[in-house]
Each structure stands twice: as structure tokens, then as C-alpha cells.
Amino acid sequence: xxxxxxxxxxxxxxxxxxxxxxxxxxxxxxxxxxxxxxxxxxxxxxxxxxxxxxxxxxxxxxxxxxxxxxxxxxxxxxxxxxxxxxxxxxxxxxxxxxxxxxxxxxxxxxxxxxxxxxxxxxxxxxxxxxxxxxxxxxxxxxxxxxxxxxxxxxxxxxxxxxxxxxxxxxxxxxxxxxxxxxxxxxxxxxxxxxxxxx
Length: 198
Known about the structure:
Layout lengths: L2 H14 L2 H12 L5 H4 L7 E2 L4 E4 L8 E4 L2 H9 L29 H13 L6 H13 L5 H8 L4 H10 L1 H15 L3 H7 L5
Antiparallel strand pairs: 1-2, 2-3
Helix pairs in contact: 1-2, 1-5, 1-6, 2-6, 2-9, 6-9, 7-9
């Protein structure tokens, strides 16, 4: 799947899904170091707006993974007026069916919306994690080396872990900025989605 397909899917999600669902999937497209199962477990307090990090405490390796955050996403997070630090950030605003208000999104919740958008666009065979990561990696390859992209994925094993800390958070943010740029066409669209006024 090319990066344009990923961008079209994200745009369709923006059209049909609640804002926070779009934001979560946008973050999966941008922060290629984060897996869907990790993202739904973050709490409001895990998003450090001062230092610009998302802290993943339930990573695949079992440790805490600090993921550098873009300024635009810090601002999007602030606009949602988080006021319950210990609550899951990605939680249901209303109760419906077997879901209770305040309950965190299930691990397949983003996938359900991704699949619905794919069905609407008649895109087949693209799963959420593979689709977001692959489309981002394809787009990033136009601007960065395979080694730089690998650093963006923040694989925390042996030398890869050491390289991440050597390269620095700002370099990782540069990679994520390019990833974000290829999945959303303009800042105007983001502002419109959350009701910003010019």
C-alpha cells in the first residue's frame, strides 16, 4: 500500500469517526514506534506536554518507552481539556451496548473504524498496524535513510536502543514530522476538525 492510500484512509476516518478515534489513528500513522495495543493503554498523565513525550508503559519489551511528540499533537491534546490524569486517554465518552462510559477503548476499536473506512473506500487487505506503519515507512523513505526510519521505530534491542539515544529526541521528531505531513494534507484540516477559530 502506498502512502497516498494511507492518507485517504485517514481522511475517510476523519469524515466518519469521532475526533478522538481519528486522533488515535493519526498518532499511529505518525508515531511508528507505537503499536495499537500500546496506544489504547495510555493515560492522560502519560502525555507530557511540557517535555513533549508520550510515555508507553506497556510496551512490547515490558519497559517504559518515551516517544517524542510533535508540537501540533501537544496542542491537539491540550484542546481536549484533559482533567483526569489517571483516566485512560482513549476512553468512551458515552455508554452504549456492553461498553460503559469511561471504559478504555478495546485493542480492536481503532481497527474497527479503520476497517469501516477501508470498506467505504473499497480498499482491501490492509490491516491497521501494518497499514499505518507501512504507509508511513514508504512515505518516509523519500526523505530518510532506512537507518533513520529504523530509529523512528525505536526498536529497543541492543544496538538499536543505543542508536535511539544517540540520535536524540529532536531528530526522531523530525522523522515523525515528515510522517505526519504525509498523512494529513494541511494544518487547516486539523484546525477544522477540532473547531479552532482562525
